[in-house]
Amino acid sequence: MMTQRAFFYDVAAPSTSTPLSLVSRKTSSQICNGRNAAAARREQLQHRLISTVITRTMARDRLSEQAREDLDAVRVRLNHQLKLIITPSVTGEAAPTLQKANDCQCDRHTYHPSQGWRRQPHHLSKDQLWDRILEEAHQDATAEPALASNLYSTVLTHHSFESTMAFSLSNKLASPTLVGMQLMRLIQEVYEDDAEVVESCLADLQAVYDRDPACDRYTQAILYFKGFQAVQSYRIAHWLWQKGRKSLALAIQSRMSEVFHVDVHPAAVLGRGIMIDHATGVVIGETAVVGDNVSMLHHVTLGGSGTGRGVRHPTIGHGVLLGAGVTVLGPVTVGAGSKLGAGSVVVSDIPCHSVAVGVPARIIKRDLLKEAVKDMDQCVEFVLDYEI
């Protein structure tokens, strides 16, 4: 400010031939003009700074309004073709939700996983499931006294399934800077606000129990299976992302990656009945869409291609089995009921009910009527002497 004053008075320095009164008027006028110019420069600088911040914020969000509309249109088209689950928060209220896979080659009179999630007769209701979980926890606490304290704090002292899940996830995700009690209240808030999150959690739990032969108790998945825990952590982050609380969503994503070694972007869309077996090294990108009843093993990557603002990641249909180490790159689609062999790299579309293997993946069988996620067999249907 002192420099500006010196500058202004130096500019307005009177000559010896000018009357004093005129000099005073000229000096005052020039000082005023100089201050106005300085203020204008400051406002212009502030405007540029704000514009830069807004631009950077938009770049962080990555998707413009037009790009979002294009993304929604593509997903609606894919949903029509492959019958994927698309949540209303991604495509709007007019978008279709759960639909049958019309291009499915299986018998329509009986249910198949490639038709999307549907509660089966052997599935337990939430109340039945909670009673079963309490019973299993009591049995384990009695059989193994060393685990009694852990089981009482995580299961037996709680009054509901949601309370147990909130406590278990918050203890897993807590860190010195993410306080466990705050996380537990946050997760309870999510469950109270959106019943869909709870229903998806129950479907995931039932999927693990049905498809993982190593899981013979529901408490195993809740307490010890990090694939199930990672998916439920993603669902909390996804809810936050939809509510506009992106910083906290990304913080939970980062913590989830550290704890479970599973990295799922909170903007990705995952359907119901998801099972991630072993889970280590699984990566799912921002614009990826995963349908219902999808099973994947460790080191699966649904990665993006390019730096564009639209869809950059894969779309996976209902009832798809992704073997260990499968990599699917770019905005390709994997049709409902398909199976991808372990270690395959997929860079082009895979039709429904197909078997593909190799680098790059090649289709070796079509019109696969047997549902891949039912038997979880990663060996049959593949040619043993297949040459890459």
UniProtKB/TrEMBL annotation:
PANTHER family registered for this protein in UniProt: SERINE ACETYLTRANSFERASE
Organism domain of life: Eukaryota
Family, as annotated: Belongs to the transferase hexapeptide repeat family.
Protein name: serine O-acetyltransferase
Lineage of source species: Eukaryota, Viridiplantae, Chlorophyta, core chlorophytes, Chlorophyceae
Pfam families: Hexapep (PF00132), SATase_N (PF06426)
Gene3D superfamilies linked: Hexapeptide repeat proteins, serine acetyltransferase, domain 1
Organism: Volvox africanus
Catalytic activity, EC: 2.3.1.30
Pathway, per record: Amino-acid biosynthesis; L-cysteine biosynthesis; L-cysteine from L-serine: step 1/2
Domain Serine acetyltransferase N-terminal: start-end pairs: 129-233
Keyword terms, alphabetized: Acyltransferase, Amino-acid biosynthesis, Transferase
SMART domains: SATase_N (SM00971)
